[in-house]
What we know:
Blueprint: H1 3-13, E1 17-21, H2 22-35, E2 42-47, H3 54-63, E3 66-69, H4 72-80, E4 88-90, H5 97-105, E5 109-112, H6 115-124, E6 130-135, E7 138-140, E8 146-148, E9 157-158, H7 162-172, E10 176-180, H8 190-204, E11 212-214, H9 232-250, E12 255-258, H10 262-265, E13 269-280, E14 285-289, H11 298-302, E15 308-310, E16 318-324, E17 332-340, E18 347-350, E19 371-376, E20 379-384, H12 389-393
Parallel strand pairs: 1-19, 2-3, 2-12, 3-4, 4-5, 5-6, 6-9, 6-10, 10-11, 11-12, 14-16
Antiparallel strand pairs: 1-13, 7-8, 13-14, 13-18, 15-18, 16-17, 19-20
This protein binds pyridoxal-5'-phosphate.
Amino acid sequence: xxxxxxxxxxxxxxxxxxxxxxxxxxxxxxxxxxxxxxxxxxxxxxxxxxxxxxxxxxxxxxxxxxxxxxxxxxxxxxxxxxxxxxxxxxxxxxxxxxxxxxxxxxxxxxxxxxxxxxxxxxxxxxxxxxxxxxxxxxxxxxxxxxxxxxxxxxxxxxxxxxxxxxxxxxxxxxxxxxxxxxxxxxxxxxxxxxxxxxxxxxxxxxxxxxxxxxxxxxxxxxxxxxxxxxxxxxxxxxxxxxxxxxxxxxxxxxxxxxxxxxxxxxxxxxxxxxxxxxxxxxxxxxxxxxxxxxxxxxxxxxxxxxxxxxxxxxxxxxxxxxxxxxxxxxxxxxxxxxxxxxxxxxxxxxxxxxxxxxxxxxxxxxxxxxxxxxxxxxxxxxxxxxxxxxxxxxxxxxxxxxxxx
Length: 405
Ligand SMILES: *Cc1c(COP(=O)(O)O)cnc(C)c1O
């Protein structure tokens, strides 16, 4: 996918626009499976919430991933995209018993992250196999300094509650077929990951009918040069070895599962926006684009850095800009960025826009959500239409039903 392809995409579908490169997604998937190729039963469950476009889900399905879902709606999207129920795992937190039951009824693997619901679900449905989400309370403190942390995290069943958990399993006669952890952004390096894995392996020995162990995600991708990136190849080698020895000890060859979101789709996505205004103030040159945190909220929500390029003037001299949006709030995409000289009308490209970008977009300021395009087999394919005014009105009740005059 070349610069000109991106400009063509805007030409055809307008701005702002999300473009996803299927080649990058495939490359990342192959990297991951290759890193763990010594494991016979490997399952990569793509974490749908990163990017739920049906065509992206379908692409994942064609590549051979399973699907990790966090809501019944994501389960339904997965089924619609062609995933078989047995390829879907439902890993929510804090959802109702009814939602878990609805997912179980659709035939997907249930993952429960608290003892209250586990007890209720197990009492009512002892025959439905359940995976349990464990919180190993591990986080990286400093560089490679491993510490116990996040005692107050809302996620998972505390590793210290295993005795209580075992009592529930025994009394309800439910079947625990999987054990899971997802420590998210706490895990920054391989040693910490392996340390948490040891805790999970130890807990796994307490359950006799396991079919899989799921290590969640937390894989890092670089957002700028010098960023921490999970060395997947090294992790693959070390964790695979340890997994093999665990299976021997356990007496059964289990499935090793992961649920990457960002790793698969972050770098595949590019967000394109058009510069409406270049404004010179006393201290700053602002480039204002036809977007804002209604379309890409990560920089404002959690300070993520997305590299910004001027596609329209790649040879222009470098100048400093603050790139901001058009929303009536502070919506700074990047401060003091060196970008090729910007003229009003230019198209800026924001990198790493595949994960948690479109899926977090909103209609704030009554703006339309952007269109989405997939670059697949050397062609651009529209995979979501830009919204229209009808979408803004949808579900609003006509006020004349209340106000007669
Ligand atoms: C969000 C999520 C993931 C994916 O995390 P990434 O950082 O995008 O890889 C995996 N598992 C669960 C349970 C999640 O909630």
